[in-house]
Task: structure prediction
Amino acid sequence: MHPLLVDLGEVHLPMVGTVHLELRTYGVLVAIALLVGWYGVVRRGRTRGLDPDRVSSVVFWSVVAGLAGGKLGLLIVELPYYLEHPGRLISSDFLRAAGVVWTAILGGLAGVLLSARRLGMNAAAVLDLGAAPLPVAQAIGRLGCMAAGCCFGSQCSLPWAVTYHSELAHAQTGVPLGIGLHPAPLYEAAGNLLLVLPFVLLVERRQRFAGEGALAYLVGYALLRFAVEFARGDAVRGLWLGDSLSTSQILSLAVLAAALPLWMLLRRRAAAGDAGG
Result:
């Protein structure tokens, strides 16, 4: 794969000195993912009669909270390492890392709830705005993972196996070189576009209450992520219960256990309300 999109090598800059100028593929694709998601949420809000400035403000704080949540999850998963090397918390690698996706999503969810309430908006309705753009943004971000070599898959001999040869990718992520691996990031990208997104759009067409689209996303992504984790080969994400489940699988089960019953409960209440009316 290609972790570097542009590499200008070492350049001497006035008052700065010699620096290595490079543009990493992962960072570019994650930035594109954020912009696509942001645009999608604001556009959907405008079509539903919501003030685009207030929606954009909610998205901003959701992104901030999501980035913080992702890094907090990374810190928790790798706590022994960071306790031993606290200086790594201010390293460029830690600052560039997206962290744990589930804690980033939950952090973003908290950001929406708090900022929407502060702006006098219906938080559940605002959460629905992100239900469809989020899988698209995640798919783009996973292409960045594929290019960087992070979130790599376990060994694979199938025809679609991928093989990394980049020493830079190996040094940064530990991805094995020269052997076939499951393209786990591509599995998740395809799953977001072919499974989660259509599922969310189908639910939205039959939506009975505010927040139903968001709950559908949580249920759909939890199922997808739980399945994809079986193809992952990077133990750094945290393995538990005799290495049988990963951190993300445990979080997926927790989210599913919370979101699915709540969805069913609210849908029954909405149906009862329609019948009573």
Q: What stands out?
A: The chain has a mean pLDDT of 91. The chain has one domain: 4-270. The longest helix spans residues 247-276.
